[in-house]
Amino acid sequence: MRMSGWDKEEVSKEIREGEHWLHITVWNRIVFLLRWLLLAGVTGVVLGAAGSLFGMCVNYVTEMRAAYPWLLFGLPLGGLVIVWMYQWERKQTEKSSTNLVLDAIHAGTEIPVKTAPLIFASTVVTHLFGGSAGREGAALQLGGSIGNFLGKLFPVDDEDRRIVIMCGMSAAFSALFGTPIAAAVFSMEVASVGIMQYAALVPCVVASFAASGIAGKLGLVAEHFELGILPAFDLPNAGKVLLLGLACAAVSILFCVVLHQTEGLFQKWFPNPYLRAASAGALVIVLTVLLGTSDYLGAGMDIVERAMEGNVFAGAFLLKMLFTAVTLAGGFKGGEIVPTFFIGASFGCLAGSILKLAPSLGAACGMAAVFCGVTNCPITALLISFEMFGYEGAPFFLLAVAVSYMQSGYYGLYHSQKIVYSKVRPEKINRSIR
After folding, report:
1. How do residues 280-339 score in pLDDT, each as one tens digit?
2. Separation of alpha carbons 370 and 129, rounded Å
3. CA distance to 94, 104, 196, 334, per residue, from 420 (Å)
4. Predicted confidence (pLDDT) at residue 2 exceeds the cutoff of 80
5. Distances (CA, A) of 104 to 94, 109, 298
6. Cα 340 to chain center, whole Å?
7. What pLDDT was estimated at residue 6?
8. Is 341 exposed, middle or buried (0-12, 13-18, 19+ CB in 10 A)?
9. CB 163 within 8 A of CB 199
10. How does DSSP classify residue 2?
């Protein structure tokens, strides 16, 4: 079929315009990529340095507490200092938390830059005196606060500032744990269950790897454990891991309920935050003296290693729940994820021995599954198990994480986390965490 001259001219014009538009689009995308490489790279370097300094301080005071056990008796005083700092800052301690960071991602609310030094100092104080808390909550708040500050300095709009906040979270998490792949995904996955903000993928990946590189250069060692020889992933062993994942879902629900209920009870029983902190500190001291062990103080990553070897008390996971719930309910700072590692690994070791699984495999699957259950982040849980335990156990980790995600319901550590899609049906539900 022949075209008229007019038709040829119109088609030629459309082709030329289309090619021009294609060139503009490609060029804009390259500029966009370069822009985010720069912004995310800067964020990663800044948070890598800050996160490394924070991690080294926490490690130092943890070693100091181990060398001087009597420091535990200063825990109530440390609690009073922490409450004073937060009362002076905002007049309301509950507002400075990981929930505030998630709210900033959802709704663009502000995260004061003063949150960074506050969470830094208060977490160091908590670990110095033996509070049972982790580091990642502080890392997420540190990353969110500094990320928000950098987002204001960078020439970005409010939507892109949220991405910079996620970059900060990924970078701080990566620097502390040495798991850059999981850290890159975590900040995108944790805010809204069922969907991920893929627009933040490149920025979070760049920031995470930059922070990990800085942390490595500064001497912060990544967490890694050896699984040893693994059994075949056959039907009997798959069935055992499925049961383990189901049990871990129940443990994750229990942990979330204990944390939130204990927080509510402490606020009811001790309306005064100073009295609440002092009482929680005193209770941790009493429990430690009665048990005659310091295993449940601090973050507890050393107990994860013992669980991998099958050398852990059967009820350790329940005691760690109690210690962590009391510590955080009292107003001490840190986080819940490293205690979750302790709880998951120690329970996995116990369940593994009952199911006739190797302690290392049971502990690794338990840690990943409980982490997934309390954070509702299955992809992050899978990736963090790869980076901490290696890829050889991938089928076991995937099955445990998948079952735990489905069966853990709509419970979680963070009330500001949104359940966008159902865990059991392909439908939108838009509900809050219990």
Report:
1. 999 999 999 999 999 999 988 889 999 999 999 999 999 999 999 999 999 999 888 899
2. 27
3. 25, 17, 10, 27
4. no
5. 15, 4, 29
6. 10
7. 42
8. buried
9. yes
10. P
Per-residue CA distances from 328 to 2, 131, 432 (Å) = 79, 8, 21
Three-state DSSP at 415 gives coil
Which amino acid is it at 389?
F
Which residues does 418 contact at the CB level (< 8 Å), separation at least 6? 106, 191, 192, 193, 430, 431, 432, 433
Rounded Cα distance between 108 and 95, Å, is: 15
- 29 by Cβ neighbours in 10 Å (0-12 / 13-18 / 19+) ranks as exposed
∠ CA 396-374-61, nearest 5°, is 100
The number of C-alpha atoms within 13 Å of 60 and in the hemisphere containing its C-beta is: 9
Share of the chain above pLDDT 90, in %: 64
List, in sequence order, the alpha helices (H) in 330-414: 337-355, 359-375, 378-389, 394-407
Question: pLDDT digits over 134-180, tens only?
Answer: 887 788 888 888 888 888 888 888 888 889 989 999 999 999 888 99
Beta bridge partners, 432, equal 418
Residue type, 156: V
Summarize pLDDT for 62-91 with one digit per residue, the tens. Answer: 999 999 999 999 999 999 999 998 886 554
| HSE-up of residue 319 (Cα within 13 Å, Cβ side) | 20
Q: What is the pTM of this model?
A: 0.90
Closest Cα to residue 372, out of 315, 325, 322, 413? 413
Confidence of residue 222 (pLDDT cuts 50, 70, 90): confident
Q: Which of 123, 115, 120 is nearest to 144 (CA)?
A: 115
